[in-house]
Amino acid sequence: MNPSLPRRQVLAAAAAVAASMAGLAAPAAAQTSAWPKQPIRLVVTFPPGGAPDILARLFAEKAQLGQPVVIDNVPGAGGNIGADKVAKAAPDGHTLVMGTVGTHAINGALYARMPYDMVRDFAPVAHVASAPNLLVVTNNVPAKTVPELIAWLKANPNAASFGSPGVGSSVHVSGELFKSLTGTQMTHVPYKGRQFAIPDLVGGQIQLMFDNMPSALPMAREGKIRALAVTTAKRSAAAPEIPTVAESVPGFEATTWFAMFAPAATPKDVVARVNAEMQRVFKLPEVADKLKGLGLEPWISSPEELARFQAAEIAKWAKVVKDSGAKAE
């Protein structure tokens, strides 16, 4: 017997095992390294400066996904234009959207024709945060409380206008709900974004707004506008001195929320990876503190929790839109 044969057999066997192990490891390695292959585009459906933009930029700044997260502000049509771009994007995890209560719960009832299906065209990733809207008025309005505002509006029907960053936004529907429950009359003025509405509010071209609290609260504290009430059922921990609308108008409640969605059919392992990174980023102490300081209540859900929450919100807002008679202009 050739004495070197056993050694060759051992080496051959070892090589075979190594090749086999490499073959098993290669798909796993490929699976984890295949995404992301390029920068991740995170679409914000409103212009810079509002709550969805703030949340998206916090995530982009802190995320560690192997590729940069690039913010793409695509405003218009109450967020529908930006959301539609994501709905029609390749389902490879490289395009995401910071959805809102408008783009993913309200607009389906408000618009006669939608460019996308709020449920079927998206894969839920995670709910991020919610916040009250803040009822604010220009300093020229004589009312300092909600009852005084109602009395002033009834004494001056259709003399007042309320602004919003777009049709279908929670800011818009909060105003429509207020009109419906108080029997007041005022004109809705949609803007292309809050940064266009706020100068008109400060200057008195429009009289009031139900702005997102993270945007409106700092300006109210600076005295540029006057805060009358928050739109949630309970007072906000960020501004407990400000009453709720419901304290004067029973049954009034409107909460705005923000959530991440991917195109439908995005691989589940990619969705899970984004969700895990969102859990990490938004639980960082400095991020959590910033959100609370802005009046945002963080809640990073699982994809399944977001799906259930979205379904309930769609049903809720469909009723609000129907009862208020609101429609997209």
Q: Which runs of at least 5 residues are low in confidence (pLDDT < 50)?
A: 1-32
Q: Termini separation (Å)?
A: 93 Å
Structural classification: alpha/beta
Strand content: 15-25%
CATH architecture of the largest domain: 3-Layer(aba) Sandwich
CATH classification, class level of the largest domain: Alpha Beta
Rg, please?
25 Å
Full CATH superfamily name of the largest domain: Bordetella uptake gene, domain 1
Global geometry: globular
Number of domains: 2
Mean of residue pLDDT values: 88
SSE pattern: HEHEHEHEHEHEHEHEEHHEH
Keywords: Signal
Pfam families: TctC
Signal peptide: 1-25
Family: Belongs to the UPF0065 (bug) family.
Walkthrough of the structure:
Helix 4 (101-110) packs parallel to helix 11 and helix 6 (170-182) packs across helix 11 (303-324). It is globular, with a radius of gyration of 25 Å. The chain folds into 2 domains: 40-130 and 256-324, Bordetella uptake gene, domain 1 (D-Maltodextrin-Binding Protein, domain 2), CATH 3.40.190.150; 132-247, Periplasmic binding protein-like II (D-Maltodextrin-Binding Protein, domain 2, 3-Layer(aba) Sandwich). It has helices spanning 5-33, 51-62, 80-87, 101-110, 146-155, 170-182, 194-203, 213-221, 268-282, 285-293, 303-324; strands spanning 40-44, 69-73, 95-100, 122-137, 161-164, 187-190, 208-212, 226-230, 255-263, 297-298. It contains 11 helices and 10 strands. It is an alpha/beta fold and 329 residues long.
